[in-house]
Amino acid sequence: SDVYKRQPYIPKVIREPSVNLNKEWELVMEFTKQKLEKQFFSAGKGTEILKTGVIGQYNDKMDVISSRQPLTLKVDEKIGQINGVSTVESTLVDILNHNKDINVFASDAVIAMLMTAPLSVYPWDLIVEKREGKLIIDYDEKKVFDYTTTYESASIPPEENLKMKGLSVNGPKKLSIEATTCNHYFGQQAIIPGSDMRLGPDAAQNPPANTERPKKGFLYKVWELEKGLKLCVRCQVDGYIKVPVTEAKLKAEAEAKEKLEKLEKEKKEKKDKKEALKKEGEEGKEEAGEAKEAKEVKEEEKAEIKKEEVAPEVKKPVAQAEEKRMETCLINLKAANEYFAAKRQMNWKQMFENNRSSLISEVSTNDAIKLTKWTIQAILGGVDHIRIAYLTRKKINDNKKHEIIGVSRFTTNELKSLVNLNVDYAWGVLKMIIKTLWEQEEGSYYSVSYTHLT
After folding, report:
1. Burial letters 226-245, b for 16+ CB under 10 A, else e
2. Going by DSSP bridges, is the β-strand pair 134-138/216-226 parallel, antiparallel, or unpaired?
3. DSSP code of 85?
4. Which residues pair with 219 in a beta bridge?
5. Helix 356-366 vs helix 368-381: crossing angle, to nearest 10
6. pLDDT for 316-336, tens place per residue?
């Protein structure tokens, strides 16, 4: 007889659209996963055209937090709004509305959502406005579009109809509000007070005032999707960090400096030679040539002596200075929350203390969509470093009080590999969606993502 392995029962879940679809609305285009999977586009790093905002320095003491001595998450309602800034709320439209070359505007949160559209589990919708040759993609401020999800990519994601006694706080909406709140407050708590740095061309002349406002920076970058179609994205950055300059960068700088000095020397020699010939004239050319040759030999001998005597003393302090060189890099600060409805042998505190890699594996599997969005936003903004804090509730039924049990350090490339992100595929999906929207007549549109049955 045949033996079959019994598969675990996964209930079918009905998820309604996040917006009521009016029967009078016309369906312009429907994107299936199969259609989006065939899209690839290499967009490059983009061109930065503007920097604004104020950011603070990341406190690297956060990196040594232990689950044995967790740090309480500080909740301060004075430091501003929790959710992000919508496209039309920012200065993006006002600043760039007169630029005829740029046609499409969006925030990095919107772009990350569109790029990960094939992965989405929970429904969402975007407002698209095409007016006077400009396409603005935004979201409804009354909704929780840019709120952080929890365990969205798990085999059985959290649902509103969970029937678990005492755990009503584990529905997706409440989990999302909780995760977004924690993400916001960690980003502010992890900044060193008084370390504000203003971004922009007038940063040196206009130092930031240390206020209770959230520290956020914005970079405006442009990508050309095709001829006549340019996208401008407002990218948010959370802070900055001081890191040692890498050996590769020091080597590249030294090689560039050496090449420049060589070119300048050759240029000077040619100029000197031309002037000498002109001054001496044709009659004294031979005599001048001999004298010049003797002078060059003498200078070479002097240079050799000088090199032997001086070089060892000069090079040593230069090498020491290069070892201590630090550079300022942008950093994004994120927080992942423990989902208490998930059944497992160990909780996050135990996992972080005993086997941190298993905790990272769990988060990267069950929160893959969230981590992918964070990675995309970092790539868009040119952010090289990311910190992810692990937060757990102090009491299992209280979603208001949390503690930080640890922080993981990632470079953007490391996180990209962890979530297996294909950047060209993400850009291919985005280009197809934007190109379709751009080809429509002027008016208002909804871009809706939903799945009735999963």
Report:
1. eeebbbbbbbbbbbbbeeee
2. unpaired
3. -
4. 51, 235
5. 90
6. 444 444 456 788 999 999 999
Alpha carbons 321 and 329: distance in angstroms, whole number: 19
Closest CA to 51 of 193, 234, 218, 184: 218
Over residues 11-39, the mean pLDDT reads 71
State in Å, rounded, how far the first CA of the chain is from the last one: 33
The strand pairing partners of 41, in sequence order, are none
- State how far the Cα of 352 lies from the Cα of 144, in Å rounded to an integer: 30
pLDDT score for 42: 93
* Residue in the block written with tokens 């942008």: 330
Amino acid code (one letter) for 316:
K
Q: Which residues contact 145 (CB under 8 A, 6 or more apart)?
A: 109, 113, 124, 125, 126, 139
Strands 104-107 and 134-138, by their bridges, are parallel
388-427 pLDDT, tens digit per residue, is 999 999 998 888 999 999 999 999 999 999 999 999 999 9
Mean pLDDT of 366-382: 95
| Distance, CA of 148 to CA of 402 (rounded, Å) | 16
What b/e readout covers 107-118, taking b as 16+ CB neighbours within 10 angstroms?
A: bbbbbbbbbbbb
Q: What is the DSSP string of 14-33?
A: B---SS---TTS-------H
Both structure tokens of 55? 């950011």
How far, in Å, CA of 80 to CA of 78, rounded?
6
The pTM score is 0.78
The pair of three-digit structure tokens given for residue 321, joined into one six-digit string: 């200075």
Coil, strand or helix: which one is 177?
A: helix
SS3 state at 157:
coil
